[in-house]
Design brief:
InterPro entries: DUF2953. This is DUF2953 domain-containing protein. With about 230 residues, this protein is α+β, with helices and mostly antiparallel strands. Helix content is about 45%, strand content about 40%. It contains six helices and nine strands. Strands 1, 2, 3, 4, 5, 6, 7, 8 and 9 form a nine-stranded mixed beta sheet that branches. Helix 2 packs antiparallel against helix 6. The longest helix is centred in the middle third of the chain and has 25 residues. It is globular and about 75 Å long.
Amino acid sequence: MWVGLVLLVVILAIILVLVSFIRGEFYFSRVKDNDTLSVEMRALFGLIRYRYVIPIIQFRGFTKGILIKSEIVNKTYAKLKDESKDHITKDKVIQFYKEAKEALVHTLNLYDWTKQTLAKVECTELKWITRVGVGDAPETAITTGAIWGIKSSLLGFTMRYVQVKATPRVDVIPQFNAKHFSTEVRIAGRIRVWYVLFAGVRLMVRASKVKGGIRTWIQIALKARSRLKTAS
């Protein structure tokens, strides 16, 4: 009887975990020369929470690229878990492009897998407010219209691939007769745990159907892990 009860509790706990959501939130703001970027992930009903913050983004020239200072905060215990600095250079961008190309070549219909996975993502918040001014009223109006066009295109792309569950709050506010630019972006989404696991299995199945596919993904994962460890 006790064994059956324990087994029932374990099964219910597994089902509860599988139907729970992995939630993510992306935030970016730029006011003058101050940039703030943060990514927060939550799982198991908030029991697992991590926040990745980039408080410093500096352009150091074409040779050194962009300096990024990042912090990883374990919000479960409300403390700083890790802190690092890294440079995004041209060579690193090229390396990332090559790895993405390798993954595409060594995975059967990776594009279809990506679309099917994104279709299960629910966007629960979408906010993008921009204030812009170039010092001249007519030019500011033209710039405002151009930014509206860019935002409309990106929103159309987003709504085509993911489920938008909230009304987007998007605006471009012209600052006439003043030179100003600031923007704030907040995107929140969620996906169920069971589908993340299912998508991972499907990805490995697709990779296994191409010669060297599994090996390629393992190499990419090991390289990514190595870069994270060596960032300082």
